[in-house]
Amino acid sequence: MNVLVAYHSETGNTRKIAEAVFAALHVTQKKLLPIVEATDLTAYDLIFCGFPVQHHSVPAKAVHFLRRIPPGKKIALFATHGSLRGGEKALSAFYAALNALQGQTVIGTFGCRGQVKPQLIDEWMESPQHLAWAREAQSANGHPDAADVADAREFAATMLYAAEQVHGLRK
Ligand SMILES: Cc1cc2nc3c(=O)[nH]c(=O)nc-3n(C[C@H](O)[C@H](O)[C@H](O)COP(=O)(O)O)c2cc1C
C-alpha cells in the first residue's frame, strides 16, 4: 500500500493534523507533501487530502488538487476549521470537496477545529453579518490540541485499515 498525505495549510493547523496522520500510518511506502508539490499521483493507492475550511468551502488550491486525482484511488479527506466540530460550515466544505471529486471513492472524512488568525476575528467582529461566526471562531483558540491530534492518528489508522480491506491485503 502506497500512501500520500497531501495538505494545504496557511497558518500551520492543517499541517499539524497532516503530520499526525502521516505518523500514524504504519506502511513502508508513504509520503507527506504540500498539495502544490504532489505532482504525480499515479503511484498511490490511498490519498489523504487535508485543507483549511475557507468561506464555508475548500480553498481553490485544494479543489485543483482533488480534480487531479486519477480514477480508482481510495481517498480520505481531512479539514481544520474555526467553527464547531460537526457544524454546518465544516459540512458544507466536505460537500464541496466531494463535488470536486466527481464520484471518486471517498472512504472517510475527519474534521477538527483550528485556531483562527486574530486579525481575521477582529475584522469579522466589526461586521454585524459576521459577528456570530467571529464569536464561534474565537473559541477555537488552542486547536488543534493534543486530543485533536490523537483523533487524527486514530482516523489515519482506521482509513489505512479500511483501504487495505478493500485492497484485499488483510485476511
Ligand atoms: C480567509 C479565511 C476564511 C475562513 N473561513 C472559515 C469558514 O468559513 N469556516 C470555518 O469554520 N473556518 C474558517 N476559517 C478558519 C480556518 O479554517 C481555520 O483557522 C483553519 O484551522 C486554518 O488552517 P491552516 O492553519 O492550516 O491554514 C477561515 C480562515 C481564513 C484565513
Description:
- It is globular and about 55 Å long.
- It is of the alpha/beta class and 171 residues long.
- The protein has helices at 13-23, 60-68, 88-101, 118-125, 131-138, 146-167, and strands at residues 2-7, 29-34, 46-52, 74-81, 105-113.
- The chain starts with a strand and ends with a helix.
- Helix content is 42%, strand content 21%.
- A five-stranded parallel β-sheet has the order 2-1-3-4-5, sandwiched between helices.
- The model has no long low-confidence stretch (mean pLDDT 94).
- The structure holds flavin mononucleotide (FMN).
- Flavin mononucleotide (FMN) binds next to helix 1, strand 4 and helix 3.
